[in-house]
Write a structure and sequence with these properties.
By secondary structure, the protein is an alpha/beta fold. Helix content is 44%, strand content 16%.
Length: 346
């Protein structure tokens, strides 16, 4: 079957990585999967032309609003995958909410990453209750074996022996919803007391205006460094080498960086928001903080308590192995797309 797959494809972001992984699942089942950036296709006529020109038989969209709205009314069966933005932000805009409800009326199925996302969607759009499935994101990590941690530290402007350092890595695209400046002040205070602790922010400049603000702030802040985007294999190697991974987002669907850190046996400190709390169980698979002061307290505790670190790492690795299986994700999407195949020609 020839499928159109719409997603928001900013490079090296969670959406792009998820979309590539799902496309791989579908192509492994013998489907031809045309992956397109929803941002490049803003009108129904463009989609109609693409469907005709490429002889597409069905479609899939990652993001109910950004992608799903473009698939309405074309007469081909489609499914959607909820993004965090759908249920954390767009749902609060009346017009977008109505559009998303209509998309769900036409969609053959919808996928939520967590039970809480499914519940939120069913509360908003009760008519979709029977077609929402839960499938956690599958995790695969591929650290670059040739990666040099010392080179990474030098690039970050950290000229100390790696042996004594505690590097906290915050992986995110530079945009406001990721709130990369949330912990900057409290981390700087800690660094002044203990010069061997650093926070490194790594990710692409998604929002140019906000990126300038982040760069200016980091430049005048002790103990905090900023790096640009990195190839996936290098990023996984950096995760594996750092002391802990941090997430300070205002909202998340399901953070790939958190899951990848768990898979790589690295402790996680995450802001206590629904998307993170669905993955991180406090003091079991990671640590959850509600404000910068609590982050500082928990981060210091983690540094001083190797037994806690060891327990969290072991539990996190087991959690990912059990609930974020790449093979289970593959099986689910291949099964769901077969339901679209049955709709072709109806």
């Amino acid at each position: 079957m020839r499928l159109l797959f719409l997603a928001v494809l900013r490079r090296h972001t969670g959406n792009a990585v998820t979309a590539e992984r799902i496309r791989d699942h579908l192509e492994a089942a013998g489907h031809v999967c045309l992956l397109k950036d929803a941002c490049d296709l803003e009108s129904p006529s463009e989609i109609a032309h693409l469907i005709e020109a490429e002889n597409l038989e069905a479609a899939l969209a990652l993001h109910l609003y950004r992608g799903g709205r473009l698939l309405r009314g074309h007469g081909i069966p489609f499914g959607i995958i909820f993004g965090g933005t759908d249920l954390n932000e767009d749902v609060n805009h009346r017009e977008k909410n109505e559009v998303m409800g209509k998309v769900l009326e036409e969609a053959r199925f919808a996928v939520a990453f967590t039970e809480s996302m499914k519940e939120a969607a069913q509360t908003q759009w009760p008519h979709a209750r029977g077609k929402i499935y839960v499938q956690s994101q599958g995790v695969v990590t591929v650290p670059n074996a040739a990666f040099s941690w010392d080179t990474f530290l030098r690039r970050s402007g950290i000229n100390q022996s790696a042996d004594n350092l505690h590097i906290f890595l915050l992986v995110c695209g530079l945009r406001q919803v990721k709130d990369p400046l949330y912990l900057v002040d409290v981390f700087s205070e800690w660094h002044r007391e203990e010069p061997n602790v650093y926070m490194v922010i790594a990710g692409p400049a998604v929002d140019p205006v906000f990126t300038r603000e982040v760069k200016a702030r980091v430049k005048r802040t002790a103990g905090v460094r900023l790096l640009g985007e990195m190839p996936q294999e290098d990023l996984h190697a950096a995760l594996k080498n750092c002391f802990a991974v941090v997430n300070s987002s205002v909202s998340e669907g399901m953070s790939a960086a958190i899951l990848e850190a768990m898979d790589l046996e690295v402790p996680v400190l995450a802001r206590n928001i629904p998307g993170n709390a669905a993955v991180v169980k406090h003091e079991v698979t990671g640590l959850l903080f509600s404000d910068p002061q609590e982050f500082a307290q928990l981060a210091r505790r983690l540094v001083r308590d190797p037994a806690l670190e060891k327990e969290i790492v072991a539990n996190g690795r087991e959690y990912v192995r059990r609930y974020h299986s790449w093979q289970a994700e593959r099986d689910t999407y291949q099964h769901l797309v077969r339901t679209l195949e049955r709709g072709v020609g109806e």
